[in-house]
């Protein structure tokens, strides 16, 4: 499964602008924003694979960079910005607000990977009236800190069976989440879900979760 390059967009985020690709299918009921982490961006092959599955399921997607080009250079040298969850969440909130203005009829979901999952949950806590669902892939939801207890959005945590340390971090985060929640452990999968069929299963689970909470959910007033 492959996602083609979508229409290029620029997401205003305070003093910076973030590059992205917005794909809105005709009749789409929901849209999923991707929060990349750990030095990744909108060109992540794993997230693009999942985006393709979501698009086939009738969902719109926004793949965008949480860091500017200059910031990515700094992060490659220091790895500091990828762990600045407050900054990443702030950028994601800007994107949520931008999408809400541009596509006001679409329910919003967040798909977070690695450190991006912590940013997605922090953003969900800050925009509870706009974020209808969250999915984490191999994520670090623990990085959202005490904001986990404020997340109202239905949340699915997907972790690889061989990603032992991250499994425990996700279990701890799951206990703190207050709303609808679920954790799926993919057999034999490692952190990057590189085993045959592992990423396909991530895409299937994410598509099902978003279908239940975005596509099948009743429209909400904003």
Q: What is the typical, i.e. mean, pLDDT?
A: 91
Structural class: alpha/beta
CATH topology: Rossmann fold
- Please state the overall shape, judged from the principal axes of the Cα atoms: globular
CATH hierarchy, class = Alpha Beta
> N-to-C terminal Cα separation, in Å?
34 Å
Number of helices: 6
The quaternary state of the protein chains shown equals single chain
Going by CATH, the homologous superfamily would be: Alpha/Beta hydrolase fold, catalytic domain
Tell me the strand order in the biggest sheet. 1-2-4-3-5-6-7-8
Number of strands: 8
Indicate the CATH architecture: 3-Layer(aba) Sandwich
Q: Give the tally of structural domains.
A: 1
Key structural traits:
8-stranded mixed beta sheet; 6 helices; Rossmann fold; alpha/beta; globular; 222 residues
Any overview of this molecule?
It is a single chain. The chain has 222 residues and is α/β, with parallel strands linked by helices. It has a single domain (8-215), classed as Rossmann fold. 37% of the residues lie in helices and 23% in strands. The protein is built from six helices and eight strands, in the order E-E-E-H-E-H-H-E-H-E-E-H-E-H. The chain has helices spanning 45-56, 69-78, 85-102, 115-126, 164-176, 198-215, and strands at 8-13, 16-23, 30-35, 60-64, 107-113, 131-137, 155-160, 181-186. Strands 1-2-4-3-5-6-7-8 form an eight-stranded mixed beta sheet, with helices on both faces. Helix 1 crosses helix 6 and helix 3 (85-102) packs across helix 4 (115-126). The N and C termini lie far apart (34 Å). The model has no long low-confidence stretch (mean pLDDT 91).
């Amino acid at each position: 499964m492959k996602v083609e390059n979508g229409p290029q967009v620029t997401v205003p985020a305070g003093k910076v602008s973030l590059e992205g690709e917005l794909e809105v299918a005709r009749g789409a009921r929901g849209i999923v924003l991707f929060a990349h982490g750990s030095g990744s961006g909108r060109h992540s092959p794993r997230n693009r694979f999942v985006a393709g599955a979501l698009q086939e399921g009738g969902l719109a997607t926004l793949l965008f960079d949480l860091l500017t080009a200059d910031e990515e250079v700094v992060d490659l040298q220091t790895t500091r910005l990828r762990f600045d969850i407050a900054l990443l969440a702030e950028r994601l909130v800007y994107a949520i607000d931008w999408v809400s203005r541009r596509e006001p009829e679409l329910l919003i979901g967040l798909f977070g990977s690695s450190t991006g999952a912590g940013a997605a949950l922090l953003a969900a806590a800050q925009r509870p009236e706009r974020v209808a669902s969250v999915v984490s892939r191999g994520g670090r939801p623990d990085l959202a800190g005490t904001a986990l207890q404020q997340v109202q959005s239905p949340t699915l945590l997907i972790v690889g069976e061989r990603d032992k340390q991250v499994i425990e971090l996700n279990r701890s985060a799951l206990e703190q989440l207050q709303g609808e929640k679920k954790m799926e452990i993919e057999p034999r999968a490692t952190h990057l879900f590189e085993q045959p069929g592992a990423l396909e299963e991530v895409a299937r689970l994410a598509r099902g979760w978003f279908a239940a909470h975005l596509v099948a959910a009743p429209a909400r007033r904003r």
